[in-house]
Structures are given as structure tokens and as C-alpha cells.
Specification:
Structural class: alpha/beta
CATH class: Alpha Beta
Strand content: 15-25%
CATH architecture: 3-Layer(aba) Sandwich
Number of domains: 1
Low-confidence stretches: none
Strand order of the largest sheet: 2-1-3-4-5
Length: 153
């Protein structure tokens, strides 16, 4: 019997208030819900031969724990840290400790928003950053991750 290898697991992690997508500031974030984003990610991952673990939390500590759990379990991390982008050194440290490729995603262009949103601690740990392309940024991040993993193989 031949064994087929499991597809690489990508953690798709979402920070605070993303559970409010579709309701919160639709003029900025649109009408797409987080469930819609999860479906988009699942479909994209399937086409790319990836598996995903899609999660959202409003808690910084929980997000840090999830990132730490990726070490040795996941092949990469796609993260929309939301407001923690601009405030969380703990999240940066956790991402750096994983030694995994990280793609940071923001639905809006953080550089066209409030001054305090222009800096992201998470970007220091990120292999790449996608912002301002709406929820399709998640699909682009998964595509980029698949290419990174393929080139590292």
C-alpha cells in the first residue's frame, strides 16, 4: 500500500473584531462575513493542495498561544492580526519563535488609514504583507504560501 502525504497545514489566524466582518464599518470592510472568508480560504487551499486551520479570537493571549502551537504542527501562518498589528510585541515574539513563513493580511490598506495604523509590529516577522485588496488578500496569501513552500521543498 502506498501512503499519500498529508497536505501542508497552514494556520489562518484572525485577530480581534474580525468576527464582526459584514457588520462592522461595511464602507471599509465590505459585506463579506468571516464565514465567507473561511469558505474562500478552504476553497483556495483545496485548489493549492493545502490544508487550513482557520481560527478567530478577540484575545491577544489566545492568539499568541495559537501561534506558538504552530511550531512543529503547521507549515506556515497566514495572519490578520487586526488591531494587534499595531500594539502586540508578544505576537511579534511568538511569530519569530515559530521559524515558519508568515504572510500578514489586512483587508484595508493600513497605510491609508489613521496614523497609528501605519506601523505593524507583525510585519517584522512576516515573509510578506498583503493589504488593501479586500478579503481576496487571504486567497493571495495562501497562493504565496504555496509558492514559498514549493520553493523551499
Amino acid at each position: 500500500m502506498s501512503q499519500t502525504a498529508s497536505p501542508p497545514l497552514i494556520a489562518v489566524l484572525n485577530g480581534p473584531n474580525l468576527n464582526m466582518l459584514g457588520l462592522r464599518q461595511p464602507h471599509l470592510y465590505g459585506s463579506t462575513t468571516l464565514d465567507d472568508v473561511e469558505q474562500l480560504c478552504a476553497e483556495t487551499a483545496d485548489v493549492l493542495g493545502l490544508a487550513i486551520d482557520f481560527r478567530q479570537t478577540n484575545g491577544e493571549g489566545e492568539l499568541v498561544t495559537w501561534v506558538q502551537e504552530c511550531r512543529g504542527r503547521a507549515a506556515g501562518i497566514v495572519i490578520n492580526p487586526a488591531g494587534y498589528s499595531h500594539t502586540s510585541v508578544a505576537l511579534l515574539d511568538a511569530l519569530l519563535a515559530t521559524d515558519l513563513p508568515v504572510i500578514e493580511v489586512h483587508i484595508t490598506n493600513i497605510h491609508r488609514r489613521d496614523e497609528f495604523r501605519h506601523h505593524s509590529f507583525v510585519s517584522k516577522a512576516a515573509t510578506g504583507v498583503i493589504c488593501g485588496l479586500g478579503v481576496r488578500g487571504y486567497a493571495l496569501a495562501l497562493q504565496a504560501m504555496a509558492e514559498i513552500l514549493e520553493s523551499d521543498a
